[in-house]
Amino acid sequence: MATPRVVATDLDGTLLRSDGSLSARTRGVLAGLDDRGIQVVFVTARPPRWLDAVADAVGGHGLAICLNGSCVVEVATGAVSQVRGFDAATLTAVISDLRSALPGIALGLERPDGPIFDPHYASDHHAPPSAPHAAVEDHLDAPVGKLLARLGTMAPDAFFAAVEQVIGPRAQLAYSGAIGLAEMTAPGVSKAAALARWCAAHDVSAADVWAFGDMPNDLPMLTWAGTSFAVANAHDDVLAAATRVTASNDDDGVARALEGLLAP
User: Fold this and answer.
1) Pick the CATH number of 88-185 from 3.30.1240.10, 3.50.50.60, 3.40.50.720, 3.40.50.10230
2) Burial of 75 by CB count in 10 Å (0-12 exposed, 13-18 middle, 19+ buried)?
3) Residue 213 — pLDDT band, cuts 50, 70, 90?
4) Is the pLDDT of residue 244 over 60?
5) How far apart are CA 132 and CA 149, in angstroms?
6) CATH superfamily of 6-83+190-262
7) Which pLDDT band holds residue 219 (cuts at 50, 70, 90)?
8) Distance of CA 42 to the CA centre of its chain
9) Would the pLDDT of 99 be above 60?
10) pLDDT at 140
11) Where in the chain is the domain with CATH 3.40.50.1000?
12) Span between the terminal Cα atoms of the chain, in Å
């Protein structure tokens, strides 16, 4: 395979180990790519505030596509750009319809400047204690990259199906692995779309991109990239779609696949 110009990798379940850590082996490989001028792009469902743990792993020019493609973040500085959020009127209607169709639903907003959650929203995903808790429809005065939804009284699969039926084409539902959490972005917003847009702006073709992932929200990115890798622990659909399979996230699969690029 030709040496890539860009390595695009998901974080949770892919580059990071199951405990959320980045191994010394993986850090060494990322540093080696940086030394050779191969651009590393983290492509993640995480919001910008969750990048602190990896900020020192991609050199001085590391980049992250966050919120499933809703914004681009300079990892070293935290600067946010290329925000692709919901239309406020459309989001207002989606929120109203979800509340009507699914009584008791708890909603959250992920904005580049921080999250906002319904008072009854319960999260096990590192919601900062300082995050405002209020009816989310009263906080649509800034771009919203992702709408979150939970309903503990429904099984996850049934809940996702119900949410998808309510939102229709007005939002895009993604599954990144958090059980019972429906994650919605604006139509046309995805990891693949954001990565393709960034690559086009930097004269990088899909053939020059290696992409790594583990969950269904990675599939569009994996099918777009010239070379795609599923980690061994990936969802079955991802294992079937990727052009190659590497070791699991806990066995440094991404690093193993990239180490050959660093050989003398």
Assistant:
1) 3.30.1240.10
2) buried
3) very high
4) yes
5) 16
6) HAD superfamily/HAD-like (3.40.50.1000)
7) very high
8) 8
9) yes
10) 92
11) 6-83+190-262
12) 16
Provide the pLDDT for residue 59: 56
Q: What is the pTM of this model?
A: 0.86
CA distance 11 to 103: 33
DSSP-derived secondary structure for 157-210: HHHHHHHHHHHGGGSEEE--S-TT-EEEE-TT--HHHHHHHHHHHTT--GGGEE
Give the C-alpha distances (Å, rounded to integers) separating 19 from 12, 173, 213.
9, 26, 17
CA pair distance 238, 44, nearest whole angstrom: 16
pLDDT single digits (tens) 105-131: 999 999 888 899 999 887 655 566 677
CA distance readout (Å), 21 to 28, 46, 159, 205: 14, 15, 31, 31
- Mapping DSSP to helix (H, G, I), strand (E, B) and coil, where does residue 258 land? helix
Whether 78 shows a pLDDT value over 70: the answer reads: yes
Tokens of 180: 């019972």
* Residue 54 near residue 17 (C-beta atoms within 8 A): no
Residue 206 has a pLDDT of 97
Alpha-helical segments (H) within the chain: 24-35, 88-101, 156-167, 191-201, 219-224, 236-241, 253-258
**pLDDT bracket for residue 253 (50, 70, 90):** very high
Residue 226 has pLDDT above 80, yes or no: yes
Residue carrying the six token digits 């998808």: 164
Supply 143's token pair: 């771009």
Structure tokens at 145: 């990259």
Q: How many CA atoms lie within 13 A of 192 on its CB side?
A: 17
User: What is the maximum alpha-carbon separation in the chain?
Assistant: 61
